[in-house]
């Protein structure tokens, strides 16, 4: 889990783009389908990668006052 | 014909309104067999229809007329009956109080009449001391007091009047107005007086009825009136049933006829646009047709010729489009893309052969909506609603759903896509009906402490979406706001860059290659040297591990960094430097941005001016100059004058070149872009604002209702929970799905129209409007 995951997913998205480009059947709607596949992939990747990178090295940490710790059960601390 | 059909529909509507318990059925258009308006029998069909409609109209009008006449008669007879009954009452009462009636000494009739005749007249009554003569009739109740007063004044009190109310009002069959009438009987003596009374009564709108003094004759008259009334009502009933029959026939065929008339009207309106060439005895039309469809059109023309049996084939001749005429814009859409094309066309119809932004809006619009809407729960509801509309789209398309539901139905594919993308963004924001989901291992651990605890990062990053540990934390908004604002800026800069890049296909297609260097390049450089740099710094700051010991500086405040980049270029606060040479790089970027402004301002006008000069130099003469073919005097003044627009128009296809106009246009364009860069980028922050509002509303709605209802136990708790759930669900759908949905729709649309389309869309076209039978109007529109 690091910044390299973003690059890995980027590579996967590029592959999916190419696949989408070549798989789309010829016809009246080819341009439409290709455009939609490519745009969807890039929009979703963008949003995911922004969210991921924002949490890689956070500058502030969550803080709350209402946590109750339970006793150890089956070797795991339960929140 | 249209008028007749309107007449029929109003008659049917009235009949149905007056007999709501057994209405006449009107067969709907779907059940009516189609009547074709083309083909060899079209002309005969039209003539037949015309005659049928005329016949029906005549019959119906006749029936209506006779019906109203008979009703009139019925009313008169009823009045006569009332009069007879009431006068009977008068006479009976009068007989019982003989002392109150003044005896007449001289009855004023001809003294030449023999005593026996008079006595016969009088004794034919019921033996009363009456020898008054009288006038009887009916009059409107409102008129009665006035009537009495006038009579009193005219006759100077020499009358005796009695009147009773008729309890049942008379209903006018045509207007439906009910009038109350009274029966009056006036006793007076003297023929002049009686004549005056008659005249007054008639002028006041009363009707006089002959009433006989003798009771026996009155009984006979009453019986006769009764018999006549019975006959009349029989006739009326039979008339009504035959009218109903007639209307039933109409009801079966009305919709079919309506559709035929509508279609015919449309075709005729179109044919009116053709011009008639008398010399060649043909109709000629000039129009537009999509190039791809030319073959289909020719085939259709051949088919039409065969079907109608005409001997001469219609010809399709393709004309070259003249230079200064822009053809109409025609985007072929299917049921999916139609709605997207409509929302882009609402901003402006694309110029002929321009890049169509609706193609990209199919994804970017639902995506930007989803960024503002992100909640898995609400998105699922939206998706299901859209899916239902699509599953039943054939049935719903025919039904009359009203304006609001109809609008939602029209955009069902947009809503479906918006819902699907919102499910995705909801997963990213980790928000389902304001609750978080703990799908993967979180990246934070809570140390075991008392009081307010701060979580500690455990080296792991939540792989998909926002870490659920943030959900419910006291300072979650600090992190979420920062994240969403930065995301909005990044998405905004990328969207705007995409929109600017859409200029490229336009320039390449229309051959404006100079504009690529004069407009596209400086715009990209300007945008990216400021905001592209900001985006890179945001990502760099995110990807730097600030806790690692190799970093000696503290994380910079990016907003301050941007501001100081402009205020004090070249100087960087050492404690917040991100990379070596940052000062130099920022200075360089600033200078690039500054150069871009005059570049955008001057390059295009200069290029246009040079092009124009080249054209002039190549020997095109203006009208009125160089008639002997010699070279024109290149007088500075004359050239200046021409550039200011005083020159005559050149070759027909060339546009009028005016330097002043071009310069002003370019100034506006440059200022708009440069200022717009900053304001539009900030405008994308609405992506953050709306998603924050949605999340907060959702949370409040849960906390204020369900959270409180989940506490109580026992049967009261169960009942309360059921009730509160209904409330919560209704509010979720109404406020969060519908209201927030519409709001996010509007803002996503605005982002497309202003921030994106403003960068490349020319929108100077007009739509292609072919003749179509696709309409749902009422006849007469």
Structure description:
The complex is a heterodimer of chains A (79) and B (781). With 79 residues, chain A is an all-alpha fold. Chain A has helices spanning 4-23, 30-54; one strand spanning 63-64. Chain A contains two helices and one strand, in the order ααβ. The two termini of chain A are 24 Å apart. The mean pLDDT of chain A is 88. Chain B has 781 residues and is mainly alpha-helical. Helices cover 60% and strands 5% of the residues of chain B. In chain B, the strands form four sheets. Chain B has a four-stranded antiparallel sheet, sandwiched between helices. Chain B has a two-stranded antiparallel sheet with strand order 3-4. In chain B, helix 2 (42-96) runs antiparallel to helix 6 and helix 14 (476-501) runs antiparallel to helix 21. Chain B is elongated. The model of chain B is unreliable at 99-130, 623-654 and 776-781 (pLDDT under 50). Classes of the chains: A mainly alpha (79), B mainly alpha (781). Chains A and B meet through helix 2 and strand 1 of A and helix 9, helix 13, strand 10, strand 11 and helix 14 of B. Strand 1 (63-64) of chain A pairs antiparallel with strand 10 (453-454) of chain B, so a sheet runs across the interface.
- Helix proportion range of chain A: 55-70%
Radius of gyration of chain B: 45 Å
The counted number of beta strands of chain B is 11
Percent helix of chain B: 55-70%
Instruction: Report the span from N to C terminus of chain A.
Output: 24 Å
Number of helices of chain A: 2
Fold blueprint:
The complex is a heterodimer of chains A (79) and B (781).
Chain A: H1 4-23, H2 30-54, E1 63-64
Chain B: H1 2-18, H2 42-96, H3 115-123, E1 133-140, H4 144-155, E2 160-165, E3 170-171, E4 178-179, E5 181-188, H5 191-203, E6 207-209, H6 215-272, E7 275-277, E8 282-284, H7 294-308, H8 337-345, H9 358-373, H10 376-391, H11 393-398, H12 403-410, H13 412-429, E9 444-445, E10 453-454, E11 456-457, H14 476-501, H15 503-510, H16 513-543, H17 558-567, H18 582-617, H19 636-646, H20 659-683, H21 686-709, H22 714-760
Antiparallel strand pairs in B: 1-5, 1-6, 2-5, 3-4, 7-8, 9-11
